[in-house]
């Protein structure tokens, strides 16, 4: 029996705003019982500046979650405790690996209710952390959005979250659009599928324009040194001061250390929906596509390749339970790629499908450029500055967090570092591979050549590959600039050239 097309209301998804809540996030919990949590978040910047946060957290009573009634209240409580917990962990001169019972006990219960991990996820800082400036105006415009909570109180931090909120709102209508396209493909309505794909491609172009607005009000220096440290989880953070992860002390003495990734855009259900709808498959990071006649790693070395994890699939465990189940349901009914492949003679259909792939690949390219400017370049500047300072002129003390340490990876050269995102993954290899995989389902031969990755002439790749300037087969990138020629390795950047 063919599975039914998912109904959005069964998963709490809005046909207008997608994975944003169907009702606006609460600006404050209605029960005064929870005022201690609200007061801390309302004064978070002052508490961090005065270094009083730790004392206030330890004096907090253990509040019961029994007074949380409506779903919006549970979501608000999750946002509050996510911000307080991360401020507690990362707000001092060195990270705190233990979260006290006053936070741990209610936080773990709230997380169980919402089917989320006890960490500041994308849901906490973006999906459930906004309000419209004017309620009678749309929320898919950055001109009408404001944040509810921030760590720094800066415009830069608010803007960083709100760009994602606007993208979620603008991309929301794509969800029912593509579900209708799946239904149309079932009855061989090629015209409807083509029209849906054309609208999808146009909307993806709009999302790319929204993403590029990040540069308008979020300064890379402020993001890297002031905002990003608070967003990190406890996974792969040994160099940042959390070798074991984080312990949520619930008073039982039986809680283990948890190594959880922090907030990441890979936790956006919307972007994963795009991939599923278009039939884009993501392999574990580092795994190459198989081309006809090519040899696998195991063929060459005579042994099975090391198992790698698929970061994108892992990120679904950081999504609210209903959203995660919705994606699983869509995966069971997605048929657009197969439908287009079986109707190759329909030029309009093939071009519309390939246009979606091109626009989504372009969106991922813009994201890589943004990561390069906000993280890769700033990391290199920080290391260059630290090497240039003499021991006497170096500032003391140095805060120990994700902005002051990159993570070493097994097999890397001594002294080399692999930059990691707040989600805990190696940044550039993951982002580049996700971008490159986006073009692989292209139908038209010309589109496959244009969207293929890597240097021209590589086996299985097209002559018109859109590789980056000076990008070699081994992933190294050579840049010619005012200071001469220099190289960036695959783990740390070299993605964007301007």
Detail the topology: elements first, then pairings.
Blueprint: H1 35-42, H2 44-49, H3 53-59, H4 71-90, E1 98-99, H5 101-114, H6 122-127, E2 130-132, E3 145-147, H7 155-171, H8 174-186, H9 190-212, H10 214-217, H11 220-231, E4 246-248, E5 257-258, H12 269-278, H13 297-301, H14 311-314, H15 321-333, H16 336-341, H17 347-388, H18 427-438, H19 445-451, E6 477-481, E7 484-488
Parallel strand pairs: 1-4
Antiparallel strand pairs: 2-3, 4-5, 6-7
Question: Could you explain how this protein is built, in words?
Answer:
By secondary structure, the chain is mostly helical. 46% of the residues lie in helices and 5% in strands. The chain has 19 helices and 7 strands. It has helices spanning 35-42, 44-49, 53-59, 71-90, 101-114, 122-127, 155-171, 174-186, 190-212, 214-217, 220-231, 269-278, 297-301, 311-314, 321-333, 336-341, 347-388, 427-438, 445-451, and strands at residues 98-99, 130-132, 145-147, 246-248, 257-258, 477-481, 484-488. The strands form 3 sheets. It has a 3-stranded mixed beta sheet. A two-stranded antiparallel ribbon has the order 2-3. Strands 6-7 form a two-stranded antiparallel ribbon. A hairpin with an 8-residue loop joins strand 4 and strand 5. Helix 1 (35-42) crosses helix 4. The N and C termini lie far apart (53 Å). 42% of the residues are buried. Mean pLDDT is 81; it is low at 292-309, 387-394, 406-416, 420-426 and 454-498.
